[in-house]
Design goal:
Layout: E1 4-6, H1 12-23, H2 42-53, H3 58-68, E2 71-78, E3 82-91, E4 99-104, H4 118-122, E5 131-136, H5 154-167, E6 173-177, H6 180-192, E7 197-202, H7 216-224, H8 229-244, H9 247-254, H10 256-265, H11 267-281, H12 289-300, H13 307-316, E8 330-334, H14 344-347, E9 352-357, H15 365-368
Parallel strand pairs: 4-5, 4-6, 6-7, 7-8, 8-9
Antiparallel strand pairs: 1-2, 2-3, 3-5
Family: Belongs to the peptidase S33 family.
Protein name: Alpha/beta-hydrolase
Active site: 179, 313, 363
């Protein structure tokens, strides 16, 4: 498993092909005063497409990413699936006793999610530990190779993460993940803790409903103690998300290939699909148009193409429904703009050693609120 230095370098032909597709764009009409109710507004997409065609400079942003983030690739053998070439960011802290940290993104994120918090994690400070930072691109995301056969689920993503850390010489490490990163770092805790995975943290805590045998005390508590007004508000918000905003999850976890034809062929279709989530799941974050287009471009120019990123839903969605219990120390950070949240008493566990309630921030917390 030899490490190879990596620089993003999209072929001119791929950029020219994108420009030809943009020149042939046909935009739909829109209901009057629809706003965000029906999805990404036409005015926003028209503005982004215009910027994309005349003004956005991918080469400039490509160079900035290469300058800011030390990137590498490495072949990782996954049991039953052969060898995958995995892309990752890696930099050691100058602090002697720094802690190895694996940062794991979700969808529609990428290794870009670590970009702003990256220098803060590396620095020495009296207020927090320093970290050796590793941020991998999931198989099928960004510049990592994608699996070619069915069955590549949560255990396999966790296997890649653990083997990457061991290959880098980190026999013991901690993890952070949000969105799918939560599921994968949790699975790493279950499979590789406490020998290798020593602690894990997430900004998207997930709780399963109270169960009479799996969580009897919590089940009894919910029977005897009425829900508070704040808890009822959480349930109502989650119900609204399931009713109005979860269609993407159902589609990507059941028919990713059908959706994939649209996202792989239409740059504007992919842009709208991702932009809707960036704005809707963040907490009033002031997205700059070039930020959005760079975020999008990592998907459009990805090694396996944007369709590959959808398959994690098809392969691993069922894992969200399983018990969240882990034994190693874990920490939760709560951000008010996270689309789905849970009452704190549902999230309590004997190994929960850290909780932090933030006043602002959403689903892309490390990017929105790096401090």
């Amino acid at each position: 498993m030899v490490e190879t230095s990596f620089q993003i370098s999209i072929p001119d032909a791929s950029i020219e092909a994108l420009q030809r597709k943009l020149a042939l764009t046909t935009l739909p009409d829109e209901l009057d005063d629809a706003g965000w109710a029906c999805g990404a507004p036409l005015a926003d997409i028209r503005r982004l497409v215009a910027r994309w065609k005349d003004g956005y400079d991918w080469r400039k942003h490509e160079a900035e990413l290469n300058a800011e983030l030390p990137q590498f690739t490495r072949d990782i053998e996954v049991e039953g699936f052969g060898t995958l070439n995995i892309h990752y960011v890696h930099q050691k802290s100058k602090v002697a006793d720094a802690i190895p940290l694996l940062f794991v993104h979700g969808w529609p994120g990428s290794f870009l999610e670590v970009r702003k918090i990256f220098p803060l994690l590396l620095e020495g400070s009296a207020d927090h530990p320093s970290f050796h930072v590793i941020a991998m691109s999931f198989p099928g995301f960004g510049f990592s190779e994608a699996p070619k056969t069915k069955g590549f689920g949560a255990n396999q993503y966790a296997e890649v993460g653990n083997k990457l850390m061991l290959a880098l010489g980190y026999d013991e490490y901690v993890t952070h993940g949000g969105d799918w990163g939560h599921l994968i770092t949790r699975r790493m805790a279950q499979l590789y803790g406490p020998k290798h995975s020593k602690a894990w943290h997430t900004n998207m805590p997930i709780a399963t409903p109270p169960h009479p045998t799996r969580t009897p005390l919590l089940f009894l508590s919910h029977l005897l103690v009425p829900s508070t007004r704040a808890e009822k508000a959480v349930f109502e918000r989650n119900a609204a998300f399931r009713a109005k905003d979860r269609a993407y999850f159902l589609l990507q976890s059941t028919k990713p290939q059908t959706l994939g034809y649209v996202l792989a062929d239409s740059p504007v279709g992919l842009l709208a699909w991702i932009y809707e989530k960036l704005v809707g799941w963040s907490d009033a974050y002031p997205w700059d148009d070039d930020e959005v287009l760079t975020w999008f471009s990592v998907y459009w120019f990805s090694r396996a193409g944007p369709t590959a990123s959808l398959r994690i839903y098809y392969e691993a969605a069922a894992s969200f429904e399983k018990d969240v219990a882990t034994k190693i120390p874990m920490g939760y950070s709560y951000f008010p703009g996270e689309p789905v949240t849970y009452p704190r008493r549902r999230l309590k566990a004997p190994n929960l050693v850290f909780e932090s309630q933030h006043e602002s921030g959403g689903h892309f917390a490390a990017y929105e609120k790096p401090q």
